[in-house]
Amino acid sequence: AETTVNRKDFDLTWNMVLEAGKLLVGDTAKITIEAELVKKVP
Asked: Quick one: pLDDT band at residue 37, thresholds 50, 70, 90?
């Protein structure tokens, strides 16, 4: 499963401007989950 979240939706607004004028932290984060489930035999 994959999704993208915006950190500002969680009130995470901290950031810093680098010398080149670019921001240190982007607004979005990509989350990827890989899972494998095994059914327990009773």
From this structure: very high
